[in-house]
Amino acid sequence: MTEFVFYTLAAAAVLSALLCIVQKNPVPSALWLVSTMFALAGIYVLLNAQFIAAMQVLVYAGAVMVLFLFVIMLLNLGHASETDRKRGPVVLVAVLLAAGIAAALFAVRDTSVASLAARVGAPEVASSPLAALPGAGRVQSAEAFTNPIASIARPMFETYLVPFELTSVLLLAAAVGAVVLAKRKL
Amino acid sequence: MTPEMKGFLLLAVLKMVVVFTVVMVGVALLTLMERKVSAWMQNRRGPNRVGFAGLLQPAADGVKNIVKEETYPAEANSFLFILAPALAFIPAMCLSAVIPWAAPVDISLDRTLPLLGHVRYDGRMAMAVADLPIGFLFVLAVSSLGVYGIALAGWSSNSKYSLLGGLRSSAQMISYEVAMGMSLIPLLILVGNASFGDVIKAQQDGLWFILPLTLSFFVFLVAGFAETNRLPFDLPEAESELIAGYHTEYSAMKFSLFFIAEYANMVTVSAMLATLFFGGWDIPGTSWDQNGSTLAAVATGAAMFLKTFFFLFFFMWIRWTLPRFRYDQLMALGWKFLIPLALVYLMIIAVAVWILEAVVGIADPKIKALILFGMNAVMCYVVFFILDRGTLVSGSYRRQVPANVGS
Would residue A50 count as lying in a domain? Predict the structure, then answer.
């Protein structure tokens, strides 16, 4: 049952992503991207990471893509023009990227959660983020079901506090930089 | 399939049917109530021709909308034009699935039914279609999707008024979603979980969150009005400027779907206000309402209905009392007042809860809530009576005075 749901969602995600990049009109393209994000949110729910699923829908589908749509509508980009069809280096880059991704997928073909944990030497501590994955610990997955926020917050603010704070500084720098670039005169 | 699985599925389907029917009929009656309330506020009688005292008016409206001719604007993107009303309607309907409408009931079902076979269900059943552990986060996430219907309706109609309505709507939703989400973080600090069950339990142990989190309630209320596109925030469909905004080009049942979605969103926001800040189905001062009996479920259901109904009336009350904001006022209120207020309030509450729990060591949730209530009374006074005079709120209504005025 779980596998059936997973493959349905995965197929939906891949198909929507494909449709997203082959559309000429930006509005349907953005909508297919939203559809991809929904499928990913569904996969997160399957992983018992309900909080991440809610955030995926709230932030990406609900805010980022609405902003995309807003900009597309504001600039009235709904009509394809001849300049959209530049070929040449784009195809080369696409082929190179596809080859790179295929190589990466080939390299990790035998990897499982357990083998990954063994390779990086991660101990099975209570605050391991791997606890969010099924089968990594009964107690943690029970908490992941009753209180998904706490099971995310604990590793984030205990084990990985410093990387988390550094990331937030990085995001702040990006936000400040965007404001400075957009608004020369403050 | 095991009998337990069948019992679970049977009850889930029953709950779905009941909630969907109640919300749809409720929405129909709400349209009548809106017209009756507006008539009452304007010293008129309102609709009173169809049925007894106009009670069948929603049915007449429904029949009219179904048999009316559908119009399609020329050069419209026909697929998105048809999809948009559904995209507005579906999230609105999904939202009513997670709200707990009454206290959980003890059910022991063990019998053989025709067609279904042996069904069994034992234990406490939550009176929500889906009792999700992420609770109100689900509501925030799904309610943010309703904007797709509106924005796409505006874009696909191939009409300038519709496009402007859609643009306004997406800008407004993004702006107020931030304030709405942030106003709920103090609640998360006090409860420690996002599920509705835990939120209600925390309010039964302590006080209703309207008292210890008054300013959160205020921010959530204002953002809720903006998210449902109700007056004074109905700029996406401002009649005096945009004809009917994003649904200018829509007719018949497709138009009706937008209407149903708006009222269903109103029901959800009212139920959220009742659940998060007014104890949900809790009947104050009693504890028998949690004993799991059918009587308790009926009584708590009635309590939940009364609280939700009050906020529905409040929505209409505001609509027929306040005029519409200007667009710059709307943006200023959202970005310059509500978001800073929610941020500062979040920091104050976080520090206060930390001091109360870790430094002073108060464990009793009632005393903690009372102390927070005292703080909130002071903060409300400061925000609404001292800071309001010319510094905080006025950013949203200060006007550019033309140079020749007053000379």
Answer: yes
Please say whether the beta carbons of A172 and A166 come within 8 A. no
* Domain containing residue A49: CATH number: 1.20.120.1200
Q: Considering only CB atoms, which chain B residues are within 8 Å of A27? A: 77, 80, 152, 155
Chain A contact for B386 (CB, 8 A cutoff):
no
How many structural domains is chain A composed of?
A: 1
Q: Do B134 and A63 touch (CB under 8 A)?
A: no
Residues 6 or more apart whose Cβ sits within 8 Å of residue A43? A6, A9, A10, A13
Beta-carbon separation of B137 and A51 below 8 A: yes
* Element holding B112 (H helix, E strand): strand B105-113
Closest partner residue to A58 (CB to CB) among B140, B148, B154 is B140
Going through B114-172 in order, the beta strands assigned E by DSSP cover: 117-125
Q: Determine the pLDDT at residue B312.
A: 92
Q: What is the residue type of B80?
A: L
Taking contacts as CB-CB distances below 8 angstroms, the residues of chain B near A54 are 134, 137-138, 140-141
Domain that holds residue A16: 1-78
C-alpha angle A53/B214/B143, rounded to 5°? 30
Distance CA B81, CA A176 (A): 39
What average pLDDT score do residues B181-207 get? 86
Distances in Å between the Cα of B324 and the Cα atoms of A53, B34, B228, B327 are: 36, 17, 14, 9
The predicted structure's pLDDT at residue B283: 83
Q: What secondary structure does DSSP assign to B245-287, as a single string?
A: GGGTT--HHHHHHHHHHHHHHHHHHHHHHHHHHS-TTPPTT-S
pLDDT digits (tens, 9 = 90+) for B248-305: 888 888 888 888 888 999 999 999 999 999 888 888 877 777 777 888 888 888 889 9
For residue B194, the chain A residues in CB contact (below 8 A) are 148-149
Q: What are A70's two structure tokens?
A: 């807003």
Closest residue, chain B, to A59 (C-alpha): B141
Q: Give, in degrees to the nearest 5, the angle at Cα A171 between A170 and A177.
A: 90
Of A58, A74, A148, the CB nearest to B133: A148
Quote the ipTM score.
0.79
Burial of B114 (0-12, 13-18, 19+ CB in 10 A): exposed
Chains A, B: CB contacts within 8 A come to 87
What φ, ψ does residue B117 adopt, rounded to 5°? 85, -155
- Residues linked to residue B109 through DSSP beta bridges, in sequence order: B121
Contact B154 A73 (CB under 8 A): yes
Q: What is the pLDDT of residues A47-104, one digit of tens each?
A: 777 888 888 888 888 888 888 888 888 877 655 555 555 667 878 888 999 999 999 9
Mean pLDDT on B95-121: 82
